[in-house]
Amino acid sequence: MIERVSARMGTWHRGGLPGGNSIAHAHGLFNMLGGLWPLVHRRSFEAVFGTKNDRWLLYTVGGLLTGNGVVQILSSDTAEGWRRARDLGVATATVLLTIDLLYVPAGRIPKMYLLDAAMEIGWLAAWARETSRCPRQPHPRL
Predict the structure, then answer these.
(1) Which of 6, 92, 103, 134 could form a disulfide with 108 if both were Cys (CB 3.0 to 4.6 A apart)?
(2) Do 62 and 69 touch, CB atoms closer than 8 A?
(3) Residue 75 three-state SS
(4) pLDDT tens-digit readout, 78-134
């Protein structure tokens, strides 16, 4: 991709940001697919992550993850779009990681959620790396 800045519009174009918005789009796809899975095929989701008693909660979390993912995927290839996608991604990964690390040891959710915890740590590390490569971007305000 060619890196360039539009002088007339003052906006970044593809390749203008470190990694473009590729991390935002990848994380968004991960969140969207993870959110859609229980909505589209609950039985296969429960076969992996255990039976859920509160289906309304399963559907709520699935819907929220899907929405978060869509926002990240559709984020504009501008500094502001990148910051918003990063802030949403970091917040989502932090919440999911916290839930995984609190409720697996307590026996409330299956150990399979430790795989999700590892993925969320990976996303947080990727966002931290990308943010450190571009110090002009403000850090997430959590």
Answers:
(1) 103
(2) no
(3) coil
(4) 889 999 999 999 999 999 999 999 999 999 999 999 999 999 999 999 999 999 887
| 131 vs 123: CA distance, rounded Å | 12
The token pair at 79 is 């500094």
Q: How far is CA 38 from CA 42, 94, 121, in A?
A: 4, 21, 22
Between the alpha carbon of residue 62 and those of residues 67, 68, 109, 118, the distances in Å are 9, 10, 16, 19
Residue 73 CB contacts under 8 Å (≥ 6 apart), including other chains: 24, 25, 28, 29, 32
User: Global pTM?
Assistant: 0.81
Which residue, chain included where needed, has tokens 């931290």?
128
Rounded CA separation 53/50 (Å): 10
CA distance 12 to 76: 9
